[in-house]
Amino acid sequence: MGVIGLDKIKTLQRNPANIRNLCILAHVDHGKTTLADCLVANNGIISSRLAGKLRYLDSREDEQVRGITMKSSAISLHYSTGNQEYLLNLIDSPGHVDFSSEVSTAVRLCDGAIVVVDAVEGVCPQTQAVLRQAWLENVRPVLVINKMDRLIMELKLTALEAYTHLQKILGQVNAVTGTLFTSKVLEERAEKVKEEVNRDKDPSGDQVYDWSAGLEDADDSHLYFSPDQGNVVFASAIDGWGFSIQHFAHIYSQRMGIRTEVLLKTLWGDFYLDTKIQRIMKGAQTKGKKPLFVQLVLDNIWSLYDAVVTRRDKQKVEKVMTSLGIKVMTRDLRHSDPKVLLFAICNQWLPVSKAVLSMVCEKLPSPLEMAAEKVEKLMSVRTRRFDSLPERTQELKTAFLQCSSEINAPVIIFVSKMFAVDTKTLPQKRQRPLNQEEIAQRREVARQRHAEKLAAESLERATQSGSAPGEATMTSLPLKPEEEEEQKEVFIAFARIYSGTVKKGQRVLVLGPKYDPAQGLSLLPEGCSASDCIQEVPHLSCCTVENLYLLMGRELEELEEIPAGNVMGIGGLEDCVLKTATLSASPACSPFTPLYFEAAPIVRVAVEPKHPSEMPKLVSGMRLLNQADPCAEVLIQETGEHVLVTAGEVHLQRCLDDLRERFAKIEISVSKPIIPFRETVVRPPKVDMVNEELGKQQKVAVIHQVKKELPQGRSSDYQHVDPDGLVTLTTPNRLATVCVRAIPLPQEVTVLLERNSELIRALELMNSSLREGRAMDINLRILEAIAELKDHLQSLLQERKWRNAVERIWAFGPRRYGPNILLNSIKDYSRPSVWQCLEWRHSNDQVRAPASPLRDFDNSIVSGFQLATLSGPMCEEPLMGVCFSVERWDVESVPFSQNSDTLKEDSVSPEALRDVSSHGNSVDATTERKMDASSVDCYGPVSGQLIAAMKEACRYAFQAQPQRLMAAMYTCEIMATAEVLGRVYGVLGKREGRVLHEEMKEGTDMFIITAVLPVAESFGFADEIRKRTSGLASPQLVFSHWEVISSDPYWVPTTEEEYLHFGEKADSVNQALKYMNAVRRRKGLFVEEKIVEHAEKQRTLGKNK
Ligand SMILES: Nc1nc2c(ncn2[C@@H]2O[C@H](COP(=O)(O)OP(=O)(O)OP(=O)(O)O)[C@@H](O)[C@H]2O)c(=O)[nH]1
Ligand SMILES: [Mg+2]
To answer: What keywords would UniProt list here (predicted)?
Structure first.
């Protein structure tokens, strides 16, 4: 527990003005955990000698072994300065991109953040990501430029060079902040303009667009990092020193007699000291003078390093120590490693913990200063605006802002993740020192036992002649079986309380993410509490807070109650909270917005137990793993496989280790990573692989192939493929015919659809509720976004063949929101468009299109399309970027019993279901069918057949076009020195990677390479790069986009030259074919390949044979 007791912390918890909830954020390996160590050591929890070496907050074994943080963990620290005492709830977060979800869980609970940047590497991809995350959650950051020692010892920069370098780094960090700020202002501005336009819809009024966009008046100076603002600390966590310019300003103002305020403004910047007139002047750079920062600050540090580490000049060291008034222990002075002495001196001279902690207390907001904007953001889920929430919900905003822990303040808690701990580490199970009374009690018991034992022995001696020892002996020695307590995991919620005081044993409501406070308030009686029956309200449940904990890194301390404004652990929620939850005592509270995750999980593997009998253990283990990790997903595929989806290779490894050692405790076997692909069609290529002009013949060949693949036994009059790719298919009972063509969507459209999938899903939801006539609360903002999407689509689909296409969109797929389009190109068939919700405001009746007989089967066509897009013909992977245009569709009249199941929307009489198109041959089909009415029965309902026919038609139409596979791509940024650059390129090339650009990092000899790489080739990539470059380059892979693989998997050489180039089957070089076959093999589909082509004995043919 360190030097401060639990009681002290309890009192501090009651004073929110002096609480700071903060997290440490940075790119991987920039020194977060090392810095946290220094802060922890300041509290006496670990020895200051071990600070930076222990990495106390990396409590897992694999974290220590690998040297990276994997889980965010919290610790409460005490800091006192002047007459103020502060409680700091500090959360250390991981920097590796695979664990960025842990960062999200940490940032959500905080008001402030320490952003750490490596002084050599500067701003890296994850630095940008965490700054963005902090921005999105309205968390105020302060900056620590760490590893300053590397500038001296590794880069061997002079103090002046280091100053220029630091300026550049500050510039980079501020550039990121600037971009975030500008985009926010522009967004707000756009919204305002829209509102104004909506308000005064005066057509005659001339609109003058104001191009200033509000950027000029927006004050953003407080957002930027600048040493003179006091929000930057320069540090070397490993050597234990750090300072802000305030520290030096105070020292020099006393020494030089210059006012502190003046020094504060001039210590950082283009100022110098004119020694003659003893004044600070501007323009150090132009006059070739040393800036103040170099002269007064950096030079001192540089000369200390020079004396202690480089020259080991004992006399000079002693001189410095006496001038600074520092005393070190003799053993440090004599230590063979000069770094030990350096640490001892620096830690006293410029203690990093003091610099960082005082900056934190001064610059970061307390829970009382929470911005109203942040509260509104937290409380309004995406589809709703804060002002559309019920009044009682809006009133809770004041509770957030007041952060009151009074009895009548409503309890509001957010759980950002669940984490598993071993039961043994719980404070209840821990052995604690006994107090006097207990010791006396135990002594008494022991004395009694001893007396009984003696009595029994004497009794035994007395009755030695063989009589039974008697019952008494038996009862007096109760052999208690040692309680074999199984090692078990319990879940603790990582949470923060925003209002009220939570007590042990209290009942609270658990609000699910879909809970609607308006609905809850209307269903529940006025003034009901969490202990009442709340069963009838959807997405609302109730639970008891069983335990409350103070999070102390590796340890937990039990508490009876926790007041508002604190970060804490809650026990006993594992049955009602999966990963995140909002807990409240009031049903008026709305659930918090979901966490914002930077990286989506993409690496999937199938797992199974080594021994099949252990399946139940695996299932329960996977369930626990799912709960314990904010980002891992666990699912069971249709094939029955148990699949684990993780964010990357390192994350996967950690999840598997957890599964093996903690949650399932069984041997498991893991499949190779399942790599996702997408299938698409492209425009027919003009030239083939060997740059030969392509004629018509290839297309014909493709169609030929389609025909060949048709299942046996189906006569070709059921289906027909035109040379230009139009597929006509008739259902087996000949009642319905569809004509479909597949067209590749322009790439920008696919990207747009992919990016807006959530919006399309909302669109579908609205449409379905409109169709069913359900009343729903439509958010105007979403409607606007949909209208914008529509306009955007329209602007992208300008070509002649896409004329009017946007209006004719029938559905999106797969799953109704995927990046494929079903287009209605049927001449006489009109149906409500997918954009019907946009017109909903104007007229309620318009949405109903004139009843048409085809409308009854509308759903079947959509379902067929959904099925076709869910798994394509190449390797049963989902389609992407394909438009299926239905050009003709006939349904003929059927007996009532056949289609009664399809009459869902309008009750149309069976007679109405007749052919609507005037197509000739359908008449023949009808007569034919009538002749053989009994044979119809064997085919089942028309709607079902239509689904199958539509699906097949789409598949054939797809195959009639040039098909391509799409691969998921990672982007990565690799930092490497010039010597290893060649090897990095080598590895990238071998793995089909492509370098996008390469630049030199200013002021260092490092190159930054940005490259893309297929996910399929990425396994072991990071390791290989690290090995080949002896650990100098270490890439981080982030999913970026889908890319079409240019080679055609079905390509076969036809000319003599091509045979020579590619061999007879061209399968040795065909990357797409390789991927496709790998997927087919995994799925147990037929793979066309021959292992032995010509089974002849190899021999040398002589001339005479
Ligand atoms: N030279 C130097 N090395 C440092 C300094 N601070 C940390 N390191 C080293 O940098 C490495 C990474 O430090 P960590 O504290 O684990 O970094 P981290 O940011 O917590 O890393 P993740 O949690 O994995 O993202 C360790 O080997 C530290 O010894 C410093 O000030 N100077
Ligand atoms: Mg760490």
So the answer is: GTP-binding, Hydrolase, Nucleotide-binding, Ribosome biogenesis
